């Protein structure tokens, strides 16, 4: 059922185009032999499908399949003590050694930079990467921390009383990006 207060900003086709742009940006930075040394880690939950799609596209374009993992940042967030309820904890799966590797963190949207700060804290519990990059489908702006993506599919300007909800068909009925009112 369509909520009258939410507004679709991107269709699934547009999202696919922006994922392709992310892949092109990544391939422009790394030579084929360097791709074997990069690892993509998707932030739970919106970054996980993005990671899978980027890995698949890199494999299809180059024949190289970068390692992939997932990272839950729930217990690293700086608002953990101010929430009314405990967060849902999801799986962290990093089945490879990250020491010295180039890690590309992925997430559906970046806004304040706080989630990425938490991800950096969580990631260092697994080792010491050589380099960390950030790929996001949507750059919302509105930073509170000095963190910006290295690769962004699209920048969307949305009024601050709304948040951006990235939906993936792996979790929802469709691929789409919506503008939805903030919870009060």
Summary?
The longest helix has 18 residues, at 12-29. The strands form two sheets. This protein has a five-stranded parallel sheet with strand order 3-2-4-5-6. Helices cover 27% and strands 27% of the residues.
What does this 3D model show about the protein?
By secondary structure, the chain is an alpha/beta fold. It has a single domain, classed as Rossmann fold (3-Layer(aba) Sandwich), CATH 3.40.50.2020. 27% of the residues lie in helices and 27% in strands. It is built from four helices and eight strands, in the order E-H-H-E-H-E-E-H-E-E-E-E. It has a five-stranded parallel sheet with strand order 3-2-4-5-6. The protein has a three-stranded antiparallel sheet with strand order 1-8-7. Helix 1 crosses helix 3. The protein is globular. The protein starts with 6 loop residues before the first strand and ends with a strand. 34% of the residues are buried. The model has no long low-confidence stretch (mean pLDDT 92).
Keywords summarizing the entry:
alpha/beta; globular; three-stranded antiparallel beta sheet; single chain; five-stranded parallel beta sheet; 4 helices; 184 residues; Rossmann fold
Produce the secondary structure layout.
Elements: E1 7-10, H1 12-29, H2 32-35, E2 38-43, H3 47-62, E3 67-71, E4 102-110, H4 114-124, E5 131-139, E6 151-155, E7 162-167, E8 176-181
Parallel strand pairs: 2-3, 2-4, 4-5, 5-6
Antiparallel strand pairs: 1-8, 7-8
